[in-house]
Amino acid sequence: MWTQIAVEISKTTQAKFTVEQYHSVSGGCINQGYQIIGKNRSYFVKLNEPNRVEMFAAEALGLKQMVATNTIRIPKPICWGATDRNSYIVMEWLEFARGDNKSFEKMGRQLAAMHRVKVSSDFGWEVNNTIGATPQINLKTANWADFFAECRIGYQIKLARRKGGNFSNKIIEVVRKKLADRKPQPSLVHGDLWSGNAAVTIDGDPVILDPATYWGDREVDIAMTEVFGGFPAAFYRGYNEEWELDSGYQQRKIIYNLYHILNHFNLFGGGYGSQANRMISQIMA
Ligand code: ADP
Questions:
Q1: Which atom of ligand 1 is nearest to the CA of 196?
Q2: For burial by CB atoms within 10 Å, which of 28, 51, 72, 254 has the most?
Q3: Distance of CA 250 to CAs 5, 80, 219, 234, Å?
Q4: Among the CATH numbers 3.90.1200.10, 3.40.50.300, 3.30.750.200, 3.90.1170.40, which is that of 97-284?
């Protein structure tokens, strides 16, 4: 398998590469991560079942589009595909360290700069991708409220029914109504920005990785950073200095994060169902 992957890396980079060592890298939720090492070069590789090539192709497209904004450091994708036993994606290897306030402030500023880039007049994206292991529907839509109500909340509620979750459909129309006046620019968003998907290199450069990219309201990324306890205060300071959040963010945040909690219910079940129900009651109140 490593030989097949090395051949593909050699082709793409037009420089012969052979795998001399590999180590497993922990921290992933969905895939098995590895560092592969050859002469003078190293890469990060994620492996999954052979039928997950499309997931990796979409991840590579998202990474490429984010790299192209030239705003914040993103691991550059090299190649992806399938061997006889696995699907895989290969990207540049980055060496991470503990970030300080300066690097988190820079992360905030650079994320805001990425959000500012005008890339599309529609919300959605070019292809569907995944959020965790769940499909993420990116139907191109002109209206943000319709997009978020249907492709985000509506889709997760439909999935939840198959997992024994019984969330009322009424929330879909409530979300549509509550977002009706929100007319954001479609920004390229990371889409899954929890702390495990943000890091700082040994040179102090902020990095965001493992995205669920689409064109959406920039606030979804900031809201997601707050789901599991929040990023350092310096991050929000940097973001707001570059592009202040709009008023009403605090109310919209709960709507945007309901998507992730419903997704967690669909992935892991358990207490996420009651958390989703509490959020739904708050939004409907
Ligand atoms: P998964 O898709 O399984 O959730 P991630 O993309 O989040 O996997 O990667 C898992 C972990 O591997 C990350 O938390 C990070 O520590 C490390 N990692 C991710 N990308 C790189 C990279 N380009 N270079 C070095 N380490 C990386």
A1: 14
A2: 72
A3: 46, 39, 10, 18
A4: 3.90.1200.10
